[in-house]
Specification:
Structural class: mainly beta
Order of helices and strands: EEEEEEEEEEE
Low-confidence stretches: none
Helix content: under 10%
Largest sheet: 7 strands, mixed
Strand content: over 45%
Number of strands: 11
Shape: globular
Distance between the termini: 40 Å
Radius of gyration: 13 Å
């Protein structure tokens, strides 16, 4: 089993920045992909950013150029740097882990990001 713990959410004004962090613990042998998903009010959950082996990254179109995902394999952490935040970025952001090319197997509880003036 893998446990994921997110931190870094909060309230920020439009145009502001936040950095989310996720620490993974447990047996990471079956994990080679980590990512961030979000679910906004009244919306379905969507993939925000994923980082695969070899540091290959994928992003939701609406966050490209504003969000950056990175990973520290030695510390089993994944970070999402978010800049130029918009009200539509408001959501519960969850960290996920699993095998590349498959549905994520492990999920954190999430951290709330609210973008509002």
């Amino acid at each position: 089993q893998v446990q994921l713990a997110e931190s870094g959410g909060g309230l920020v004004q439009p145009g502001g920045s936040l950095t989310l962090s996720c620490i993974a613990s447990g047996n990471m042998d079956r994990v080679n992909a980590m990512g961030w998903y979000r679910q906004g009010p009244g919306k379905q959950r969507e993939m925000v950013a994923i980082i695969h082996p070899g540091e290959h990254t994928m992003y939701l179109d609406s966050v490209k150029g504003r969000f950056t995902i990175s990973r520290d394999n030695a510390k089993n952490t994944v970070t999402l740097q978010m800049t130029d935040l918009k009200p539509e970025d408001t959501a519960l952001y969850s960290c996920a882990a699993g095998r590349a090319g498959r549905a994520m197997d492990y999920w954190g509880r999430g951290t709330q990001v609210t973008v509002s003036a």
